Structure formats: structure tokens, C-alpha cells
Amino acid sequence: MRDRMSRPQPLASIGSFKTKWSIIVVVAIGMTAIMSQVGLELGWPWWVRLLAAITVGLSLVQFLAHGTTYPLRDMAQASETMASGDYTVRVAPAGKDEVGQLTEAFNAMAGNLAEADRSQREFIANASHELRTPVAAIRSTLENIVDGVVPAESKTMAKLLAQTEHLSGLVAQLLDLSRLESGAETVKMVPLDLGDLMHSVESEARLNHPAIELELKSPMGLKVVGDEHRLRQVFTNIVANAVRFAPLGSPITVVVGHQNGTARIAIQDLGPGISDEQKTRVFERFWQADGTPSGSGGGAGLGLAICKEIIEQHGGQVSIEDHHPAGVSVVVELPRML
Q: What are the pLDDT digits (tens) for 251-287?
């Protein structure tokens, strides 16, 4: 941010751009008339009086207007700098009028662009890292097969297939998150029976994990408006996380309720729990991939980020709450049909 403290700002306390320029025009006309009268009393020739009046008037206008217009010039210059990719430039505050408000909005926009640029660079770096890992594993295995170091037997090919499926799933998640965040794909809102949806999620979870101890508590006839495919994706992902973290044989409870126009779905497990610091980061992209939680069991850390985006598009929210005596509850709140 450039230093403007040394620049004269005689009209900075005035809160209206229009009023500032009205004052400038009135003062300029008044000084021109005064100089003309002074020159007349001193006996100056008409052309000298005219020249003196114009000089004094323009000098005064330049002095008064300079502090009013420089933020506009600075914003134009800053815009050119930002167009080249430098989002650190800021414009100093300039008074209380509309131009001052514009500089504040400009600086806020520059901050948002800088944060978006940082987030994009971080996303690309993390995505590249996550994609590189399965690609490197597949490549090294294939090179060993080609070189004859490892035989192309079914066990080896099964490992290759597993890595390929992991890579395919990661690419699908990246595309999914990108479409949701960019608005390229929106949720299709239709009336849904939340109980039916959760029973369907329960059946799928039991099919994928036959040994699971899952208890669903849901009232009948609880209606919400939402995208069935996307909400199923959310709850399937959260239940799968609960299965991953919960001790073998411990119960997982899904409690569905409603209050004050809001449907509340809590997926509870008796796993190792989560710290307060982790609660603020668990919905970040790639957070799990950074290895912060122990025993994560793999994954790229995109599932809960996708869930958060979907729930927010439904006008709801998702959060982590403590579940005593152990474990956590992932709580989803959605507007319900009254």
C-alpha cells in the first residue's frame, strides 16, 4: 500500500463526492472574481487580470481536486498490476465519500482475489501430489513387469487394478468438487422423504459392510426439499467415515429429528474422537491427505469438503460435535418442509 500521508487532502472530511466538486467549482469561481476585482483596483490591463484570474483559479482547483481524484488514478494503476497476477497491491483509504467507499471495496476485492489465487495454487499443488502417488505406483509396477523383475500374475495385476480404481476415484472427486464450487453443477431440488432416504443409505451401508452395527432412528413423514442423488452421496460418505474410524463391533447411530423448521441428522460413532483444532479443518480440501488425523485409512481428504459444498447449496450446514463418552457426531442440518 502506498503512503498517502504526505498528500494534501483538504476536503477529506466531506462525505459526498458531489458536494466536494460543488465546493471546488464555487471556490474557483469566487477566486476568479476576486482576482479580477483586485486587478481592476490595481489598474492592471484586462489581459493581465484575465491571466491572473485563470492562473489562481486553476491552481486552487488543482490543489483541492488532487486529494479527491488520486484514488481513482491509483485504482487504475493497481488494476493493471493485478491483471499481471500481483494481488498484493492495495489503494490507501481516501476520505469518507463515495470514492473512499470505492477504495475500501477495491481493497476487499483485491484481498478476495489474493485468497482465491492462493487457494487455487494450493488446490493444484495438492491435487498434483495426490495424483502423482498412484501414477508412480502404477508406473513402477509396470516397469518391473516389462523388465521381467515381477511376473505378470493375477496378484500383481490386482494391485494395479486397485491403484487404477483409486486414481479413477480421485479424479472423479476432483471433478465433482470443481463442478460444485464453480457452480457448473447445481442441486436439483425436489420434495424428499428424509426417512426413506436414510433407510436407503442404511441398506447400502449394510451391503458394503455386512458386519456393521448400524442403528437408524428416524420419524415417519419428515420432508425436505433437496437433490436425492447429492444428499445420498453426503450421508453415504459420512456413514462410511464413521465405519472407518469406529472400533470393530462398536455401534454407529444415525438419529434423524426436526426442530423449528430444520431437519437434523446426526451420525454418531465411538471412534477416537477429534480435537477442537481438527474440527475447524476437517472440511478443508486435502486435509486428511496431509496426514493430520492418525489412522485415517487412506483417502484424499475430499469427501467431507464435497459434503460441505452440497449441504451449503441446500441452504443447510454441517458440523462436528463431541459425542460422549467417546467418538464424534457429524451433524447435518437442512431446511425441512413445514
A: 899 999 988 889 999 999 888 878 777 777 888 877 7
Burial 222-253 (b: 16+ CB within 10 A, else e): bebebbbebbbbbbbbbbbbbbebbeeeeebb
- Residue 332 sits at φ, ψ, to 5 deg, of -110, 130
Architecture of domain 120-182: Orthogonal Bundle (1.10)
Identify the pLDDT of residue 254.
92
Could you give the CA distance from residue 266 to residue 275 in angstroms, rounded to a whole number?
18
- The arrangement of strands across the sheet holding 262-268 comes to 214-217, 252-259, 262-268, 328-335, 317-322
What's the length of the chain?
338
Q: Helix, strand, coil shares of the chain as percentages rounded to 5?
A: 55, 10, 30
Confidence class for position 17, pLDDT limits 50, 70, 90: low
Choose among 299, 272, 293, 265: nearest CA to 281. 293
**Strand pairing report for 262-268 and 190-193:** unpaired
Q: Where are the domains of the chain?
A: 17-111, 120-182, 190-335
Report the alpha-carbon distance of residue 321 to residue 338 in Å, rounded.
26
**Any idea which residue has 413445514 for its cell?**
338
Say what the pLDDT of residue 289 is.
37
The one-letter code for the residue type at 94 is A
Say if residue 2's pLDDT is above 50.
no
pLDDT at residue 318 greater than cutoff 90: yes
CATH number of 190-335: 3.30.565.10
Please give the grid coordinates belonging to residue 82.
493485478
How far apart, in whole angstroms, are the C-alpha atoms of residue 56 and residue 35? 8
